[in-house]
């Protein structure tokens, strides 16, 4: 009988263990890509919901970046990689269960630095994480809020905004009826609460910055500033009818910049006004007239203004310089009456087309990508679609005057 030869002792057990972990992560990527990506999304959601854990992970990422001389790009995949490294023993039980009669000896023969191996793993997974929705695959997953004024119903909703806790704030009301209010839902469509103010008549636009909620009211020519708290106290109300700076004629929608400045579109004064976070010190974005501006969105460097008369999007710098106008045959031929829009991370333009009862998605050059919905009152259908917003999970929130489902959320199935 041949003599039994024991495995050669490892020179560096720690290095061997590290490369063992890496080999099995690569095995996981190659053999169970979908499972790994599902795990990554679950871990990311868990970490996002636990601030203390997320803070600790961010410190670990900072240390890792220093040790590797910035060789690893800082991105969301690092959290996943660190999680795999710290919980690799649990993953081995699911990924690779050796046969009881099989003896496997791993030797440390690789000379590739660990940080390079981790970076390679990140590159493999990076392509699988979407940054913009697949709009053509979107289907309605939430349809709630029948047309009405009871709690949980929506009474002529106009705009929607999402806060940092994934709550939907929906401005609703019509000046002919005493039901102006802000309703709050979860991103799953659960009704949470609603509140109002005695001076509100027709809240039309809504924007959130931190714990500050700003609401335009077209009927009282004003902006309301609420604090997002248990009772949503009113901080300030600014504005009155007029053409002077600081006054309004049909304020429509608004957006808030990173530094807290509030940008407001005025439909009949043909301009965009800018206020500080306290709604003081007003100024005009530009001295040029903007033809019937409806909605407005901001990026770090640019201001997007949607106009309904010429069915175009004008793009300005924050200093008021007109940079370009997205007036394409696609926009002008495909859109009849755009009143609200939103942008994704690729600056694709998602527009609610009021008269065709559809949501239309264009590239930033104005070329049509796809269309969502049709006229009607069933899930996936719209009646006068209005406010739009994208969630952190890349779901599209749409409010309309659908008799049965005023609030709908679309996701990729």
How would you describe this protein?
The protein has a 4-stranded antiparallel sheet with strand order 1-24-23-22, with no helix packed on it. The protein has a 4-stranded antiparallel sheet with strand order 2-3-4-5, with no helix packed on it. Strands 6-7-8-9 form a 4-stranded antiparallel sheet, with no helix packed on it. By secondary structure, it is α+β, with helices and mostly antiparallel strands. A hairpin with a 5-residue loop joins strand 22 (388-390) and strand 23. The chain has 7 helices and 24 strands.
Q: What kind of sheet is the major sheet?
A: 4 strands, antiparallel
Kindly state the mean pLDDT as a whole number? Answer: 81
Number of strands: 24
What integer value in Å does the Rg equal?
26 Å
Low-confidence stretches: 1-11, 69-74, 95-109
Kindly report the spatial arrangement of strands forming the biggest sheet. Answer: 1-24-23-22
Helix content bin: 10-25%
Ends distance: 61 Å
Q: Name the overall outline.
A: globular
Strand coverage percent: 25-35%
Oligomeric state: single chain
The structure class reads alpha+beta
In DSSP terms (H or I, runs of 4 or more residues), the helix count works out at: 7
Short characterization:
This protein is an alpha+beta fold and 413 residues long. The protein has helices at residues 13-31, 33-48, 51-67, 77-86, 88-95, 114-126, 329-334, and strands at 138-144, 157-162, 167-172, 181-186, 191-195, 203-209, 212-217, 222-227, 234-238, 251-256, 262-266, 271-275, 283-284, 293-298, 302-307, 312-317, 322-326, 338-343, 349-353, 358-362, 368-372, 388-390, 396-399, 407-412.
